TrEMBL record, chain A:
Record family assignment: Belongs to the LeuD family. LeuD type 1 subfamily.
Catalytic reaction(s) noted: (2R,3S)-3-isopropylmalate = (2S)-2-isopropylmalate
Assembly: Heterodimer of LeuC and LeuD.
Name recorded for this polypeptide: 3-isopropylmalate dehydratase small subunit
From TrEMBL, chain B:
Alphabetical keyword list: 4Fe-4S, Amino-acid biosynthesis, Branched-chain amino acid biosynthesis, Iron, Iron-sulfur, Leucine biosynthesis, Lyase, Metal-binding
Domain of life, per lineage: Bacteria
Subunit structure: Heterodimer of LeuC and LeuD.
Residues annotated for [4Fe-4S] cluster binding in this entry: C348, C408, C411
UniProt organism field: Isoptericola sediminis
Broadest EC class assigned to this enzyme: lyase
Cofactor: [4Fe-4S] cluster
Protein name per UniProt: 3-isopropylmalate dehydratase large subunit
Pathway in which the depicted protein is active: Amino-acid biosynthesis; L-leucine biosynthesis; L-leucine from 3-methyl-2-oxobutanoate: step 2/4
Catalyzed reactions per annotation: (2R,3S)-3-isopropylmalate = (2S)-2-isopropylmalate
Amino acid sequence: MEKILTHTGVGVPLRRSNVDTDQIIPAVYLKRVTRTGFEDALFAAWRGDESFVLNQDAYRNGSVLVAGPDFGTGSSREHAVWALKDYGFRVVLASRFADIFRGNSGKQGLVAGVVAPDDIELLWKILETKPGTEVTVDLEQRTVHADDVTVPFQIDDYTRWRLMEGLDDIGLTLQHEDDISAYEQSRSSWRPTTLPAKHLPKVEIEPARPVS
Amino acid sequence: MAGTLAEKVWEAHLVRQGTDGAPDLLYIDLHLVHEVTSPQAFEGLRLAGRPVRRPDLTIATEDHNTPTLDIDLPIADPTSRTQIDTLRNNAAEFGVRLHSLGDADQGIVHQVGPQLGLTMPGLTVVCGDSHTSTHGAFGALAFGIGTSEVEHVLATQTLPLAPFKTMAITVNGDLPPGTTSKDIILAIIAKIGTGGGQGYVLEYRGEAIRRLSMEARMTICNMSIEAGARAGMIAPDETTFEYLKGRPHAPEGEDWDAAVEYWRTLRSDDDAEFDTEVVLEAADLEPFVTWGTNPGQGLPLSASVPVPAEIADEGERVAAERSLEYMGLEAGTPLRDIAVDTVFIGSCTNGRIEDLRSVAKVLQGRTKADGVRVLVVPASARVRLQAEAEGLDVVFKDFGAEWRNAGCSMCLGMNPDQLQPGERAASTSNRNFEGRQGKGGRTHLVSPLVAAATAVRGTLSSVADLDLGEDIDLTTFDGSPLAPLTAPSFV
């Protein structure tokens, strides 16, 4: 996972509350076998609407989403975070997040920053009056800067540290690789391995056919 | 300090103890992989440039999507074909052993582990499938995980895990004739509810459990998840060792002796404390069937469809009303009067050789009820071969049943084996959720014996409703192998 200390990018005002994960990515996209390429699925139901914020040129290349309260509620699907990241978002700011979504974000390297409702309103006004304004999110200082305004955001220490170190769950665990290797040395020899494969004799199987 | 079986296995796998509320890091001995929950995990590895840390502790098989007919032809459904092709490519790229369709060791992942002798006592076993709890029957700590965790295990062979609570479920006495371990677990779920096990690892104990064969124990542990539990376990004993000995991956020589010595220590200490205890009397059990749309909505076969108005708890009453509407059932109807369209015998719950043997004993010399479709789907290709070597396939075909290739099949209808809207099935599988076996399909969960009797009569039935000859000893259906194996043993 990439380290994030600060991020600067076009801010996108999403004036909606309770954006649930079915709105972020509808269930029909969950059948895919890939982990990337979900950019077309992001907000799929709204993308058909020409007036939708991401369909406006000034916001099209946005990477900082400024949303209403209770972002990411509903189904626990990790695809919601994948879709946001695949589209190009690195940061989502809202006054409140659903727990599971916030947890998933931290694990996948998407910054979910909690900003006071009044400050969200302030950011919305800037982004709407001056479309294409860049927003700088500083994880070290925990601040959001846009135009001439700087406001604080909250993120828990542990998630912030992980984002700044670029550590996903796997990266974190691999920091303890010495412990894992030491444990592996101590494993008893009777514990099974799947390789080299041991088989009973190969046998031909006659395919079953439909009953006529 | 005295410990439970689950705690002992947990402690033996601690790579790092979590501090300040952080989770423990546990080592995973065996990782089972199938085509549905693995593609994004492999993709994640590829994107991060990570290898599979221990391909030699990983094994993959194709099961959820595989057709049970014409397995030599291309898979018709494009989504299924893509998932299977993706698994084949990933297994080749990352060096993971794969048992593909057509291979003798292909089959449901929870049958393949045990039959190869890879599942053994004292292991931690994970798989991106909730029915991984099956492997707990050997005294392994085995549980289902999500796709991110699949990737985590592939990359690190460990998992960060929060601690669990422990529940002892003691089943005393002897099972009455015609009842099986499936009836035990359905009764347990009806008793503690589908959320009753949440946060717990269940340990099944008591005389009735001790007397069960390995395969019957697997049926019980398999459905632990239907009670909401993280895992189910049974302490290993001579039955376990006997099942394992001689299987392809079972330890040999000194390793075997060392393993058995260790395995004998894998039992809850007499003074170990469980967070919760539940007790059942096996003698009180009857064949159990579900009438609703969750596995907790079950009753003895002699009962009638419940009357929602008589249910005191409002939540349960509303749920019952909704279930009856979906199931198309009248309150108060005797369960024995319910006619079915389909009988499905198979799945990771009840698709093993003992299940097929017990069904064949009931079906032998009979013909199926008019208009009923009977599907027999072995859990693995080896089980199929074994059944054919014993001539069970002939019994099934003579009866009028369809004999199929191995896979998950109609348990979840990801392949073409599905119920049509409104169709009703007696099924030896594990979930009776709305639409589980096909959109609009109605499922009654039953034991293999009830499935067999139902296939004969066309209505939900027990073997007691059949005129079985004196020579059929029903008390041994869940015991050691039913008949001496005269045919070569493949399983």
